[in-house]
Fold this sequence. Notes:
The protein is an alpha/beta fold.
Amino acid sequence: MKPSTAFQHLLLDISETISLMAITAVPIPSGLDYKTQMFPTLTPAQIDRIRAVAKLRPVEAGDILFQPGDEHVPFFVLLSGSLEIVQPSQDSQVIVTHHPGGFAGEITTMSGQRAFVLGRVATAGEFLEVRHEDFRTLIARDAELSEIFLRAFILRRIALISGGLGNVILLGSRHSAATLRLREFLGRNGYPYLYRDLETDTSSQAMLDRFNITADDIPVTICNGIHVLRNPSIQQLASCLGLNANVDQTAIRDLIIVGGGPSGLAAAVYAASEGLDALLIETATPGGQAGSSSKIENYLGFPTGISGQELTGRALTQAMKFGADIMVAHSAVRLNCDKRPYHILLEDQTKLATRTIVIATGAAYNRPPLPNLAKFEGLGVYYGATFMESQLCEGDDIIVVGGGNSAGQAAVFLSQTAHKVHMLVRSGELADTMSRYLIRRIEENPNIDLHYKTEVVALEGDSQLERVTWLDKSTGERSTHNIHHVFMMTGASPRTDWLQGCLALDGKGFVLTGRDIDTVALQSAGWTLSRPPQMLETSLPGVFAVGDVRAGNIKRVASAVGEGSMAISLVHRTLGEM
């Protein structure tokens, strides 16, 4: 499918508005300089270590080494000549030019996912070319080079995201729930894209009119300058971008991890670093509830705090560095547990085989029984408080519902941009559910009003949320307020529907593990081994549960990470029994 003339005009119009920095990858004196770390020059000794896994490739001016859509792109080191990295737009704007001693690549070089930029030789010379598989081997065994490459790749990806320099254009509206869903998916997966808000960009709207695109078609995504998707699902967008194209779905894995929160990511990092063939499956975006946290301040090693998205983004990069495969935008809908290897059935009927499983599906925030709740989700009702949501409610009065740490973190974070934060807590105090440092910040923050024994009872509005009614249960008084943004962070329920009939669960649906599984439940589940279940092992041999999905879990990020890493030691024991 080739773009029409109108579509070409749209791309030209968009590309003209992109502000590109003219970056030249040449040495900068300070080793601490941001650009030096992004574009370092390798020493002759470092290059010699790369030669052992590389082949020498003569190149001529104009040679295309890779282009958008290519998978498992090789890693290139320049010995002589120069290489341009080009943004895939109609006028082929150069993002950066690499020179001798430099190297091409960013996160996709490590993950094997499809490239979204073009590599074009500017000046003839000689390059070292390293195959994707050999590059992974190189960074696994050479600590110095691994640090150099990883730091550069992360900084380059950040620069691409900041500049909107990817192969995706998203045309949508800030008042569209579907637009917010796609932006969250791209943002939390660390994927560069260019966003144009049709509420303020009249030129783009005029172009969309040429395609006869209606309000029902919005948001519109354009992949690789060719494929136009009208109001796509997360799965359709992921497929267009080829986010899962490098995953072998026919292999029998050592381990499949279901869920990409902190516990699942920790399991992926430790499994891959210890040589297991591991695949992580995530329904939407890695990070889970922690990934939507504005700031985590009580996680060991980060005294000034770290956002959930940054923490989980680093973990995802670590997992890919060690060779874990990541599958996003897919959900497990059933576990076939009657024989081994086990099979996990996905929503598209794909079956994945594995010898062991780590269940890290976490828990989802409970949705209160409000008549119009679903209508306003993404249109005034949110379940995460990140930078993106904070921009939607800048200068407005907002409501945060909940009394746990997630709600507290959201209230403090949103108070920086909102006019007033009304925090509605069902109980009469915070001490039982929230860390003391958060309680102190909330109580001392003039922009946060605490409402104890209070709950939302009605949501009203036409196309988006306009009014909220809450009930003060201590007085029985109802009051209605012109508030357009509500952040729901109430208690959570485990995501275990797909495990029914396979594992022993407690009365609330959480997975029982280890000593918590009594003899009756174990017998009813058909436990056949002479030994009892290991710690974190479920009533099914070789299947483990970690993090918020596990009965008796401790709701802390550090605990989830610890359980994910511990589970891999137990996985090794189980594999040794086979």
